[in-house]
TrEMBL record, chain A:
It is found in: Cell membrane. Belongs to the binding-protein-dependent transport system permease family. LivHM subfamily. It comes from Aquabacter spiritensis. This is Amino acid/amide ABC transporter membrane protein 1 (HAAT family). GO terms for molecular function: transmembrane transporter activity. Keywords: Amino-acid transport, Cell membrane, Membrane, Transmembrane, Transmembrane helix, Transport. The lineage of its organism: Bacteria, Pseudomonadati, Pseudomonadota, Alphaproteobacteria, Hyphomicrobiales. GO terms for cellular component: plasma membrane. It is a multi-pass membrane protein.
From TrEMBL, chain B:
It comes from Aquabacter spiritensis. This is Amino acid/amide ABC transporter ATP-binding protein 2 (HAAT family). Belongs to the ABC transporter superfamily. PROSITE patterns: ABC_TRANSPORTER_1 (PS00211), ABC_TRANSPORTER_2 (PS50893). Keywords: Amino-acid transport, ATP-binding, Nucleotide-binding, Transport. It comes from the Bacteria. InterPro entries: AAA+_ATPase (IPR003593), ABC_transporter-like_ATP-bd (IPR003439), ABC_transporter-like_CS (IPR017871), BCAA_Transport_ATP-bd_LivF (IPR052156), P-loop_NTPase (IPR027417). Pfam families: ABC_tran. One of its GO terms (molecular function) is ATP binding.
Length: 290, 237
């Protein structure tokens, strides 16, 4: 029983991390409908930048974090303006090819600069264990989970409650209508992609302090983020959280009791089942009328 | 009188395919003017150029005397010209209320937005009943009213209405005509594209007939109604 509770706790913690890793993709893929295969690489850049600033430069974690967030935002804005904008409205395939190319470019640039070594972001959070009943969690993980929750809530409120959020939803549901009410859709696309990149980078840096930052982990991060977004129902934040938690829990429990070699496959099996049973995801609000 | 809207030699193209070959038209303040013509004649394209969705490749577009050719859509809307597009384009996953509010996206004073919302709800009580419902679940007629209401939320002086009765029952189409007459009564100038020629000419004082990207005729509604042969010749019956 104690093992099960521990696995549950691990699953919830990892699930929150998955939700955070997928948050940027929820915006970019779920809402904006750009199939961004470079999402994981944006995460990697965030992690590596976080490592460089906290380790090589020696900045404090909370000084480095806003720099990474801002830097990744600007990076995303430029990527949208100079690359994504050129393939907008040309169907998903060109976007897929573009972002695959971008991801290959980023991985290899990162390999050239920092090599293959796993690098740790220096964080002020301690790895001291905290006991909650029979369950053990490190202080660092607990803090990061709290930070994830705050970030997810903030993005949710941004999209649902603010003028920018309304402009975003309007633009992605019907760009023509958005332009006709005076929304500058070009800025909305740019800002959304910037926000998505900033969130990916933030996730990379936060989790780079728990796990490691490494040039080559982008691929698996992308795949799992897609799993989470699809599980949750494209563009739904509640869905992304639930998708992340489900993935984390299933992996943890599978890892505890099942053959461990298959842990990474479990998520993809889930997606296959999901697409067969509820093709619009757990939380989608599909409108009935065509 | 100075025209509220004037197009001179407007040309526009989709890629290499030219859709407008020099459109000239004038709309006086307070008029309702209809654009008639077969499918693909360039009526919607003309609207898209006027409202800034598309850049003309040549020619002049003047709104209240100021050139708006090539201006962005938000600049044109801010100047007081709203475009209610073909096929409604409501945001299906947003509520009726959110759709309407976004119509006043460029308005910052809350009180003003509330005042306009109330006016719209007063005119379209069905929308008020359904204000919490997502727009995608409305009937075609209700969606059309929502699209018109949304365009009116910007308090335009000139409204472009593209096929507002497309796919509607005759009764709903009559309702749309009634709304257009009311708008005219409020001093709003209306430029209307309409497939149903008789409906169009019953509200419009004048009409332009489009054919493959050109204006081939311009006359008062009365004159056009009096010579059905002329209409038939242009519109193919
Ligand atoms: N998005 C587009 N891409 C390419 N060509 C287009 C596009 N939209 C319209 N066209 C072409 O431009 C020409 C004019 O089309 P437009 O939509 O303006 O006609 P219309 O008079 O509004 O027709 P309808 O009565 O069918 O709405 C047509 O030949 C059409 O094929
Ligand atoms: Mg048309």
């Amino acid at each position: 029983m104690d093992l099960f509770l521990q696995l549950l706790a691990n699953g919830l913690v990892n699930g929150t991390f998955y939700a955070l890793s997928a948050l940027g993709l929820t915006l970019v893929f779920g809402l904006m409908r750009v199939v961004n295969f470079a999402h994981g690489e944006f995460y990697v850049i965030g992690g590596l930048a976080g490592w460089a600033l906290t380790n090589a430069v020696g900045l404090h974690f909370f000084l480095a974090l806003p720099i990474v967030i801002l830097g990744m935002g600007v990076f995303g804005l430029l990527i949208d303006r100079f690359l994504i904008e050129r393939v907008r409205d040309q169907g998903p395939e060109t976007g897929i090819l573009l972002t695959i190319g971008l991801s290959i470019f980023i991985v290899n640039t990162a390999l050239l600069v920092v090599g293959t070594a796993p690098l740790k972001v220096v964080s002020p959070f301690l790895n001291r264990p905290i006991f909650i009943g029979p369950v053990v969690v490190t202080q660092a993980r607990l803090f990061t989970v709290a930070l994830c929750a705050v970030l997810i809530l903030a993005v949710h409120l941004l999209v649902q409650r603010t003028t920018l959020g309304r402009a975003m939803r309007a633009t992605f549901q019907d760009a023509t209508a958005a332009r006709l009410v005076g929304i500058r859709t070009r800025h909305v696309y740019g800002l959304t992609f910037a926000l998505g990149s900033a969130l990916a980078g933030t996730a990379g840096m936060l989790l780079g302090s728990i796990y490691v930052a490494q040039a080559t982990i982008g691929g698996i991060v992308s795949l799992k983020a897609f799993v989470v977004v699809i599980l949750g129902g494209m563009g739904s934040f509640a869905g992304a959280i639930v998708g992340g938690l489900v993935l984390g829990l299933v992996e943890a429990i599978w890892g505890g009791y099942g053959p461990s070699g298959y842990v990474d496959a479990v998520g993809f099996a889930l997606v296959i089942v999901m697409l067969l049973v509820r093709p619009y995801g757990l939380f989608s609000k599909q409108v009935e009328r065509a | 009188m100075a025209p509220v809207l004037e197009l001179k030699g407007v040309e526009a193209a989709y890629g290499k395919a030219k859709a407008l070959h020099g459109i000239d038209l004038r709309v006086e303040p307070g008029e309702v003017v209809a654009l008639l013509g077969a499918n693909g004649a360039g009526k919607t394209t003309t609207f898209r150029v006027i409202s800034g969705l598309m850049r003309p490749s040549a020619g002049e577009v003047r709104f209240d005397g100021a050139s708006i050719a090539g201006c962005s859509a938000d600049a044109v809307l801010r100047a007081g010209l709203a475009h209610c597009p073909e096929e409604r384009h409501v945001w299906p996953e947003m509520t009726v209320e959110e759709n309407l509010r976004l119509g006043a996206y460029l308005v910052s004073q809350r009180i003003e937005i509330e005042r306009r919302m109330e006016r719209i709800y007063l005119r379209f009580p069905r929308l008020k009943e359904r204000r919490r419902q997502s727009a995608g679940t409305l009937s075609g007629g209700e969606q059309q009213m929502l699209a018109i209401g949304r365009a009116l939320m910007s308090a335009p002086r000139l409204l472009l209405l593209d096929e507002p009765s497309l796919g509607l029952s005759p009764r709903m189409a009559k309702e749309v005509l009634a709304v257009i007459r009311e708008l005219q009564g409020q001093g709003i100038t209306v430029l209307l594209v309409e497939q149903n020629v008789h409906n169009a000419l019953s509200v419009a004082s004048r009409a332009y007939v489009f054919e493959t990207g050109r204006v081939v005729a311009e006359n008062t509604s009365q004159a056009l109604l009096d010579s059905p042969d002329l209409l038939k010749a242009y519109l193919g019956g």
